Amino acid sequence: MAIECLVLGAGQEVGKSCVVVTINGKRIMFDCGMHMGYDDHRRYPDFSLISKSRDFDHSLDCVIITHFHLDHVGALPYFTEVCGYNGPIYMTYPTKALAPLMLEDFRKVLVDRRGEEEKFTSLHISQCMQKVIAIDLKQTLQVDDDLQIRAYYAGHVLGAAMFYAKVGESAMVYTGDYNMTPDRHLGAAQIDRLELDLLITESTYATTIRDSKYAREREFLKAVHECVAGGGKVLIPTFALGRAQELCILLDDYWERMNLKVPIYFSAGLTIQANMYYKILISWTSQKIKETYATRNAFDFKHVHNFDRSLINAPGPCVLFATPGMISGGFSLEVFKQWAPCEMNLITLPGYCVAGTVGHKLMSGKPTKIVLDSNTQIDVRCQIHQLSFSPHTDSKGIMDLARFLSPKNVILVHGEKPKMVSLKERIQSELRIPCYLPANCDTVHIPSTIYVKAHASNAFIRSCLNPNFRFLKRSKEENSDQGLRNTNSTAPLQVNDERVAEGILIMEKGKKARVVHQDDLLLILRQKKHDIQFGYCCAAHLDNLEETGNRDAAISHSDKCSCLQLLFKELSDYFSGVNIQDLGEHLQVESFQVSVCLKDNCPYRIIDSPQKEAVTVFFCCSWSAADEKLAREIISAIERFNLSDNLPCKNSK
């Protein structure tokens, strides 16, 4: 059965991740995100493609959320509380704890500060999260009788997980966002080696290979230090969870070593709550942080303080972490408007910025002006520093994961099309794995191959090891047809070995499949062996047979022997490589037997009456199903010897 993949978001773009996968009749929605770069209908996935009647409870078996970033969870309250989905939702414990904070902060920015139309309320967020079922890492959860899921550590942000889904013999992994290299506060992604029909992976940095993490950290610290030493202010727009903690650990440690007194600020509210959760969920962090937790909590920052809005235009240098990342709105955009016109200040962009955001415009060049709307234009004279502290894996990490898992198919999502095309070519050429990069609203059909592991019985194994050769030479006429015949040549030998044909596959409900020998099957069924024999009685006119005086008289015993001897001679000459045995009463080749039939009414005889003009002899033939082809060849040969039967009957005058 094929796997069907409907991409509702993150198809050839970064934003509103949402992929609906149908696997062996089970339908799963992976992620339910919003697009941070749009404020129209393109912000949310087109859920009508799941069900025209909007009966989502019967159209989906479950929803799985990989992590708390808004481009993966931002549309979930809208889908559940406005669109009406009431089925099961799965995510990790940290994601369940942190997602409501992200959603509520976004709602406030959207409605309270920007005055946009409210798509979901605080009550909707609360009611949505009550439907969530939390899952732990490597916990295999049985959604129903057929569908099971399992979460694997993905790095990226606190609580992020790759999800494995299996229905019957078909299996797949959806990565969400992940990082294959550890950083200061999170470990690298970890997953078992699995047999997969499909891997759906993010491809944010499809063509990027990052340099040393330590080199990037040194460059970042140098840029920040030079700015504050010159009296400037540093704005680091970042999401409250993830990069904020990573860079706070880095700066706090550097400030301690360098004995710097310049204040470092967090924008108040969400980030304070986030740090509290990081302390609570310490088991999800990197090994180094877990090891030092007993003596010092890495999230108790000595040099980082809460920021008050009255300090925006305060004199003197400072470093400020402000949300949201990408400068897509909120407090980071408010601060950017105030600090961007000053040449002493620095805006450092530590991660990926979606197209349509201010951050993306700053990364795309060195603009002197940023136009927000028809009434707002920002002069940009400050320094712009771009450095990849992104928690996404790079192209090497994507290739390493695909090589490790070796799935039968790969689908790329969450990336930019030109770069995805390049990565697709690498996966197909280097790994020899079919790869797809569907656009939004496209459906990909993946063939699913089912492999059954079966136990082999000892008798079956022995039958496979023991030779069971059959030797058969081509007839002279067949050789002549192929241009091989000459007066002195012998017919080429055909060799067949049909050992494995004796295996029988037994599949019983609730038991492991078995491959047994046919003798094993008789014991299992408590039955005796029954052989099916085919019979045919030919009529033949013998020119070589001596006249007996009475042409209608029954053939004597000596005439019967003469007939068999004549037939033995003719067949031996015709099938020179075949072992034809003369057993007195009959001739035998494999299971094929032929003897002179003296019955007046043989049940295997087809002709109505013998020809009176010639001496007529009937040959009774029998054979098993395995030698059907051989029997046809011998009977056909008898016809060519002018020992004719009724197909057609050949008479001699």
TrEMBL record:
Where the record annotates domain Metallo-beta-lactamase, the positions are 15-232
Q: Give the Pfam families listed for this entry.
A: Beta-Casp, Lactamase_B_6, RMMBL
Beta-Casp domain ranges (all copies): 244-362
- Gene3D superfamilies cross-referenced by the UniProt entry: 3.40.50.10890, Ribonuclease Z/Hydroxyacylglutathione hydrolase-like (3.60.15.10)
The question of whether Hydrolase is a record keyword is answered with yes
Keywords (alphabetical) are: Hydrolase, Nucleus
| Top-level taxonomic group | Eukaryota
**Where, subcellularly, is it found?**
Nucleus
A Gene Ontology BP annotation from the UniProt entry: snRNA processing
GO MF entry, a single one: hydrolase activity
A single cellular component GO annotation: nucleus
**Is the keyword Hydrolase assigned to this protein?**
yes
- Family of this protein: Belongs to the metallo-beta-lactamase superfamily. RNA-metabolizing metallo-beta-lactamase-like family. INTS11 subfamily.
What's the protein name? Cleavage and polyadenylation specificity factor subunit 3-II
